[in-house]
Amino acid sequence: MHDDHALLERLRAGEEAAFATLVARHDGALRRVARTFVRTDAAVDDVVQETWLGVIRGLDGFEARSSLRTWIFSILVNQARTRAVREARSLPFSSVTDDDRPAVEPAAFGADGRWTSAPARLDGDPETGLLSAELREHLLEAVDGLSRDQRAVITLRDLVGMPANEVCDLLDITGVNQRVLLHRARARVRSALVPLVEVSG
Amino acid sequence: MRFWRRRRHAHDPLVCREFVELVTDYLEGTLPAAERARFEAHLAECDGCTGYLEDIRRVAGTLHQTPEPPPDPETRDALLRAFRDVRGDS
User: Fold this and answer.
1) Global ipTM
2) Which residues of B touch A121 (CB under 8 A)?
3) What is the reported pTM?
């Protein structure tokens, strides 16, 4: 929010470099979220383009009651919803209609509910504390393999870094729903990465 | 004795199968205090679950540090042109 103010001033002054920064920062995530609403690449292109045009036109009217990022994503969701309605593809987001398999396959646990053997670990990078470079290469693929609703939530929460309440507002879901979808999404991404880990002794 | 144990079910120690389903509520800070205590008690004694929680943290943390691919140059130029047309300072 802090650097929003300076960026907004530059945008309003018509500074192209500021707009280029904004596009570089958000275009990819906007596409990923748009894809959860509309089906074809062409429709995604349209929705994202309309969003950026909306941003350009709306800069003067933006009152900074939310962050710049939240404002941009709300324009996207409005554009995408309108488009999805036209495509007759406007299903509400929900954890109820989503796949509800457990976080970890049941076979991993014994009758006593404990791990039958130590679960596989995702390799980390000791320098950064993040996933290893090799696993990082497959991370976005794993996200793309999720159900639509899980993808929408994990993209906004973890990739974009939006707080839970804003994601609830954007996708029109309850806090509980949001949490369930995030929970499944992270667990599935972990499961998708586990087979890529070298089994060590 | 048995009966007493069953009635106290909610306070029984967590097992791993339950633990993995509470991870997100724990990280989001939405576990009620008593549940949180059970969760942390299990965490303190279970290496498998400690590793699992760390994995999930790592997935979320790494996603946050993952740059999205930039738009292709054509799209980018078209957007900059649109910006210039509407807001250009020249």
Assistant:
1) 0.88
2) 51, 54-55
3) 0.88
